Hints:
Two copies of one chain form a homodimer. By secondary structure, chain A is of the alpha+beta class.
Amino acid sequence: MDLKIEHVDDLCTGAAFLGAGGGGDPYIGGLMVKMELQAGRRIQILDPDTVPDDWLVVPTFMMGAPTVLLEKIPSGEEAIRALRSVEGHLGRTANATLPVEVGGINSTIPLFVAARLGIPVIDADGQGRAFPELQMETFAINGVRGTPLGMSDEKGDVAIILTEDNHRMEKIARAVTTRFGGTAYVANYPMSGEQVKRASVKHTLTLARKIGGIINGARAQRRDPFESLIEFLVTTSYSTAKAIYSGKIVDVDRSTSGGFTLGYVTIRADGGGLDDCKIVFQNENLTAKSGSRVLAIVPDIITVMDSETALPITNETLRYGQRVVVMAVEVPAIMKTPDALKQFGPSAFGLTDEYVPMSG
Amino acid sequence: MDLKIEHVDDLCTGAAFLGAGGGGDPYIGGLMVKMELQAGRRIQILDPDTVPDDWLVVPTFMMGAPTVLLEKIPSGEEAIRALRSVEGHLGRTANATLPVEVGGINSTIPLFVAARLGIPVIDADGQGRAFPELQMETFAINGVRGTPLGMSDEKGDVAIILTEDNHRMEKIARAVTTRFGGTAYVANYPMSGEQVKRASVKHTLTLARKIGGIINGARAQRRDPFESLIEFLVTTSYSTAKAIYSGKIVDVDRSTSGGFTLGYVTIRADGGGLDDCKIVFQNENLTAKSGSRVLAIVPDIITVMDSETALPITNETLRYGQRVVVMAVEVPAIMKTPDALKQFGPSAFGLTDEYVPMSG
């Protein structure tokens, strides 16, 4: 299937929803993709189950501070240079690219790369949402090596990293990103078509587009977007979605530390009677609690949405007085295995609460 | 000429002298080289003027905190892996290696690499002493590209850096070194034999060995090592050497910041009458002043030596009460050009004093 220009806004809205409060605003990435389509370039979205086993598939993405992105608009060549450096190291050209995370801006980077290079994008990703660190990937959990990792910046500088350890890959690449000026464009986890089938969260670009379509189309169709979302998600691999809380934001605490946005938001229910809901985040929302009761917890997706428009609110733009609905979505089976929970479950973020999926 | 095991201690002493207070203690590097020679391996030292123009020559060295080196003894494979990663990127095998700096431990790393790989070491380097940063190289000043740079650590991790800008090469590699745990082994400035002849400070390994021989042999020969050194250096491209001050250390201020050892040492002349001598350092000694009078200034070499043994004292081991002689040595012509002074003269270290060579 080809991505059409009228799909881009829906894809971006859905990507913001799957970003769980983080992942970076997909707005700029969406603009870059639209410009490619307007210039007549094609973006083919390929079903992961149809990818030839012997293909070389290399994910492309942006890492660093999304706030810096706004001051340092990419030319697009950065991500292509990163991909080329991995290809150069492997001595082989990539047959396709895909996102490492479908949540936030990184849903759009591979679309741009694909348009420029004339290769397809696989309809799948390695997080099924957004997570803050490079080792938090279903690719890693299912045996794909993280490196060679190639990264580049707007000045044309390149770094190639080789390590057996994905945590060290994260730390080294993060240090280089800082020296690159706060953002970098990266290609890593080069994999075969066979590995794509086994190690990815499938059909997530389509999922993002459909989620966005429901949110953006609700007003015209006079439907309740929250109900529509829940009805839709039950038919997908994400299965269970709930509106877990609604009310008014009464407190936001947010700081930047170690390259992450850390903090919490407190929401007070209308009419009272319920304990306040407190959502704690490290870039992405990690837990939603009402008093001591856990309403939802990572890796399940917790997203704060405008109660009128149902548009997702990223953590950078939370503010006092916003009326919101909090939705939580259970993640697909590949993201709830013991190995997956070790990589991006509660303990990976230093939380002591156990993972209890939305379905209970 | 082949390096003999009985030359190694002299080479290390001379390298410490040329280290100008920094460069790291060559002791561990010397041990590694001796073990290679004892194992029957050969280290051929090649005159730079005899290197074929079309050879690929790649310097190898260690970067980071010499203090960490003592806790994280290298296996030697680190530097070889760094060299191999540059070779892999260029698609060509190195014909020889050489030091980036003859001062301190980095005089010894290429000797070890050469022994293991069975390639010669060129009798030349890119600093003619020691300097703290990667762009401070006669290679750079004379048009050799700094990258591809390859670096590795004891865990086997590798980073390859590509940039047109040697200052950015320094900053990125420094950040990776920190993530590697404080030390890294590096290969960069890959160059042709023709470039070696044009861009290096020549015959500096031999120089180091001879300087060390004079210091280590003085007692047995009942000669004054300081006078012997001055007499010897006047016959070399370093030409002018002087004992600029002698006395007792009365104050040492030393701190570690941004990966550098910063501080000063104050020396009081015996008998009084002279203003104290204050030597300021950033890893290496930068200026020696008596009152407001500049006795010596970078890039000339300022080395504090034990007044009894004439052994060089590195800045990590300076302490109150030591009786010392301060020697200063004028650097060769290739290190005093306007371009060279821009790269590693007083202003490169933020000093406002002008460079005045030892010969006045």
